Write the structure tokens for this entry.
Amino acid sequence: MSVSFRKISAVLQLKLRLIVSNMSIIFTPVFAIIFVIVMGNLMPQVDTNETAMPFSTEGFLLSFGLIFNIAIAGISMSSSPIAEEKEKHTLRVLMTSSVRGPEYFIGSMIPILVILVATNILLVPASGVSLGDIPLFTYLVITTLATLISIVIGYIIGVFAKNQAQATLVSTPILVLFTSTPVLKVFNETFAEVLNYTYSGVLANLAETLSSSTEYQWNITDTSVLLAWLVLTLGIFMYVYKKNGLDSE
């Protein structure tokens, strides 16, 4: 399967113009930063050394912000545009201009990925964690892999859904599950063990470790979980895309 970089560039420029003309697209990443800052000013500071509890305010804020940005923004920013373009029939016009599905997906993914990765970096100082004290390479690799997983999940929903309402209906329970991860890990040990095998659970573990005095140790379990989720979601996406196409109607 070959792709045209010229067509990918054309789709990329089209998406950038849409983002500039419709700033509501990047509201969710901006809200993630704002929520973390506001919650940081409202929540009491918890010293884990004094309480002996596996909880820290900075870790909770960072994990909440990462999951808000990666799960909610990542899935909605990739699923909604496809569903909207299907509804307005602009996607069919784009397909008739010889742009193929893979070229559309790659060109659409680049601006979303750049925005979300930049937000992931900004969330570190916003949550109160020092940017100079974290292993930046490890942080970028793990959060970028998780962001790619969310974007692919959004593509699956976008390809499956026929309109924006259906995309919202399908994505809501998924978003509720992922965004509940930090809270469930704190208050329920059984859920915490299960959620360690989700990509949102890996993010929560990373954020909690970065806010504590211990250094995050990149381990085979977290790497395997992220790679398994990426392979699984890509496999589901390829199946759904081959079965439904980009615009089946």
Q: What stands out?
A: The longest helix spans residues 57-87. The mean pLDDT is 81. The CA atoms of residues 169 and 242 lie 23 Å apart. The chain is about 80% helix and 0% strand.
